[in-house]
Amino acid sequence: MKLKLMKYIALLCLFLIFPAQSQINHQANSYAEREDVQTFIDEMVTQYGYDRTILDALFRVTQPITSVLKAIRPPADPGIRSWRAYRSRFVEPARIAAGKTFMQRYANELAAAEARFGVPKEIIAAIIGVETIYGKHMGNYTTFAALTTLAFDYPPRAKFFRQELVEFLLLAREENHPILSYTGSYAGALGLPQFMPSSRRKYALDFDNDGKVDLTASPADAIGSAAHFLAEHGWEKDGVIAEKITITGDGIQTLIDEGIKPQYRPNELATRQVQIQKVGADETALSNQPAALIDLITPNAPTEYRLGYQNFYVITRYNRSSFYAAAVMDLAEALKDSPIGR
């Protein structure tokens, strides 16, 4: 009787907190009718001991979200990429001001995370600033519905999102929270640092020591978790992130094509048919650590080049984009260089 009562309460919670109807495409059938979804349910029951009744009820009240599919699809003309336009979205006065306020308010938590993980406080703050403007834009999509839509109706990345759906269901069970109570981005990212469910399970920390992990309402947990993620992916304490350079030679495109994982020390690049020089008044020598050539392209403007070292590569593990890592780096520099006002 007790088990049946618990199932009844769980099912009741599903319907009491069902997401806003504005996110639903009423023309689509529920996912419960689909063979691939039933196969997924079978796997969750067999591999993870998940309750079939709960999963059946969840998929029965869930339909594809058309706005999620629209948001995830690449632009019709993928060739139009502009570093200057991208940078201007994230390194701008309002976000810098919000970042300075955040760093002042949570100075102790940022200092503790830097001491524990070796990640500079301005990098931690910049990650959260780029992701959500310090909690202002965390997303209001129901996470289960968003991940279900991408797992079963977006073939290019269905495998990835299906695994994230698995991770999310396990997370909700571990935290004993109603599955439909989680909200986040259209891609299923959660909280201030926008962790995907797999990262949420693996790297999220109870950094404020209140007995629970809360990346939405606890900036301390978000700060510690973001720093932990970067440290676990190989962040080098006091290491250079990237250096702005000018570059000439016939080997530029070959180096770019080799990717963003650091491979060559700057003093080795002469053998790769390129010549490089550090940009700016700083006359210190280039770091002698392995680096990758990063090209930041803007249409109808000169390309900006950087040497990306290990820490630049680590930031791309958070979001696999050179534009993203460069924006985090530049926002962090703005937060570091600008005095914090009161």
Name the descriptors:
single chain, 342 residues, alpha+beta, Helicase, Ruva Protein, domain 3, four-stranded antiparallel beta sheet, two-stranded antiparallel ribbon, 50% helix, globular, disordered N terminus
Kindly describe this structure.
With 342 residues, the protein is of the alpha+beta class. Among the domains are: 2-63 and 139-181, Bacterial muramidase (Helicase, Ruva Protein, domain 3), CATH 1.10.8.350; 242-308, no CATH class. Helix content is 50%, strand content 7%. It has 15 helices and 6 strands. The protein has helices spanning 2-16, 35-48, 52-60, 66-72, 83-90, 93-105, 107-117, 121-132, 143-153, 158-175, 197-203, 219-232, 252-257, 310-318, 322-337; strands spanning 141-142, 183-184, 242-248, 275-278, 292-296, 304-308. The protein has a 4-stranded antiparallel sheet with strand order 4-3-6-5. It has a two-stranded antiparallel ribbon with strand order 1-2. A hairpin with a 7-residue loop joins β5 and β6. α7 (107-117) packs across α8, α8 (121-132) packs across α15 and α9 (143-153) packs antiparallel against α10. The longest helix has 18 residues, at 158-175. It is globular.
